[in-house]
Design goal:
This protein has 283 residues and is α+β, with helices and mostly antiparallel strands. Helix content is 45%, strand content 17%. The chain has nine helices and eleven strands. The longest helix has 40 residues, at 242-281.
Length: 283
């Protein structure tokens, strides 16, 4: 796969650094591999799946076609992480005000097919909203759930007492393509809404390669933070890992070394041409 070294967003580069040296792309046992899986679907057009909403009615993602959708995956037995992410989405919806419903919609998907029944999704959803018109809480059968989680690059694995899974919300643009995953747990409204609104501008014709905003730099540090933290299953929290930090720094040095080896001659040549022009102008 070709990667444009000039227009590649910095956040993407940060996320790809550990993935480029991952020992196995098939064994999804680390955050790095989960990130690789998720980032591989950016730009992919999602399918239309027949889901079941919180009222037991059939629902398809194309029912929200023509507007961006914010999507997050949860399991209703989760005691902390999933509710925190969903609460973050609720705060973003509240911050958006009248834009919600008229400009974009939201869908929360319960991926635990054995327990996340429509009734459970209804109970779960009522903890976050009183109106299911533009924010659906849905579930699906086993095969549909497999296909939709594959579409979104969403990794989850059954573990004792629950699931290990990627913590993120996903922005689907108005054309039905995956625009961005926003990684984290306790996300601010801005972290969710900024890429949402950016997706609208991109669809309208703004260059997707631009985006060196304050948010972009914030995301760089957020990505580094996520990649340097270990998940503690016993407490449901992330703890800083110096081992991971050192590993990330080593990987960064390796990647920068590769980039330098590729571009060194060109950089030297450029400086020589500039120096010669200046020297000639002073003669």
């Amino acid at each position: 796969m070709n990667i444009n070294r000039i227009t590649l967003p910095l956040t993407t580069l940060i996320l790809l650094i550990p993935l480029a040296v991952s020992s196995s792309t098939q064994d999804i046992t680390s955050k790095q591999d989960a990130f690789k899986l998720a980032n591989s679907v950016i730009g992919k057009k999602i399918g239309d799946y027949r889901l079941t909403d919180q009222d037991g009615k059939s629902f398809g993602l194309k029912d929200f076609a023509g507007k961006p959708i914010i999507i997050n995956f949860v399991y209703t037995d989760c005691g902390h992480i999933c509710p925190t992410i969903t609460m973050s989405l609720g705060k973003a919806i509240k911050e958006a005000g009248k834009d919600f419903g008229t400009t974009f919609n939201a869908v929360t998907i319960g991926f635990d097919i054995d327990n996340d029944t429509p009734h459970r999704m209804n109970e779960y959803g009522r903890s976050f909203t009183d109106d299911f018109g533009n924010w659906k809480f849905v579930t699906a059968d086993k095969e549909t759930m497999r296909r939709i989680t594959d579409d979104f690059g969403f990794f989850y694995k059954k573990i004792p007492g629950g699931f290990d899974h990627l913590n993120a919300v996903t922005i689907v643009d108005s054309k039905g393509s995956i625009y961005k995953h926003v990684y984290g747990i306790n996300l601010s409204p801005r972290e969710i809404l900024d890429p949402l609104y950016q997706s609208m501008k991109t669809v309208e014709g703004e260059s997707a390669g631009k985006r060196y905003s304050d948010l972009e730099f914030y995301e760089i540090f957020t990505s580094i933070k996520l990649l340097c933290y270990d998940y503690d299953e016993s407490t449901g929290t992330y703890k800083f890992s110096y081992t991971l930090l050192i590993l990330r720094l080593v990987e960064l040095i390796i990647v920068l070394g590769i980039i330098y080896s590729i571009w060194a001659k060109g950089i030297k040549s450029l400086f020589l041409r500039i120096f010669r022009k200046k020297a000639l102008s002073h003669k």
